[in-house]
Design goal:
The protein has helices spanning 3-23, 45-70, 76-99, 106-127, 136-153, 166-188, 190-194; strands at 35-38, 41-44. By secondary structure, the chain is mainly alpha-helical. It has one domain: Up-down Bundle (Four Helix Bundle (Hemerythrin (Met), subunit A)).
């Protein structure tokens, strides 16, 4: 297994670790989780650890793609596993945040539905020997998701200090971009999808 694929597998393995840390029954086991107060914002240590894991995973995502392209190490496994690792990471965190009632469950439903539709379009494209590249809107969706997740894990710091719910604004912007990018993928590939109707 080459280095980019090892980084991708590492990213997948970080997901259950992230879930374990976030969902661990600290209260039941009488474990007091430290909470840090920064500019009137209370940020639990668990959130900081999860953010660190998310950051490490995001860095592996950046480097596995860069190394694979630069060193010509692109493999079938990498093409298959890399997008799965990305979606597992982001959607798992969104579901954890929804479970904790930091965001509405509608957000991960929108994100997962969009990803499912886009993946289906790409699968149909691949079966017809058409490679459907990531669009600019797709890249904007990814960036907006990451910004929103960081703000949510930091309990809206530093915007909480000035009373602006930027974490909620950011996650809804990410959801909106997600929907728009999904529609964009569909419209750009409509002829391919409807050719046998």
């Amino acid at each position: 297994m080459n280095l980019p694929n090892k980084l991708t597998v590492t990213r997948v393995l970080l997901v259950p670790l992230l879930v374990l840390i976030y969902m661990f029954p600290y209260e039941i086991l009488n474990i007091k989780v430290p909470v840090f107060e920064i500019l009137d914002t209370n940020i639990p240590l668990v959130n900081i650890i999860v953010l660190m894991i998310f950051t490490i995973a995001s860095i592996t995502d950046y480097f596995d793609g860069k190394i694979a392209r630069k060193e010509e190490m692109i493999t079938t496994f990498g093409k298959f596993a890399d997008p799965i690792a990305d979606k597992l990471l982001v959607n798992t965190i969104l579901l954890l945040l929804a479970n904790n009632q930091d965001i509405t469950i509608i957000i991960p439903i929108i994100m997962i539905a969009r990803d499912t539709i886009v993946d289906a379009i790409r699968l149909i494209g691949a079966s017809n020997q058409n490679v459907i590249a990531a669009s600019q809107l797709g890249k904007m969706k990814t960036v907006s998701q990451m910004v929103a997740i960081i703000l949510l894990l930091l309990c809206n710091f530093p915007f909480s200090y000035v009373g602006i719910p930027m974490d909620q604004i950011a996650i809804w912007i990410a959801a909106l971009i997600s929907v728009i990018s999904g529609i964009d993928y569909f419209l750009k590939n409509k002829s391919m999808l409807t050719e046998s109707m």
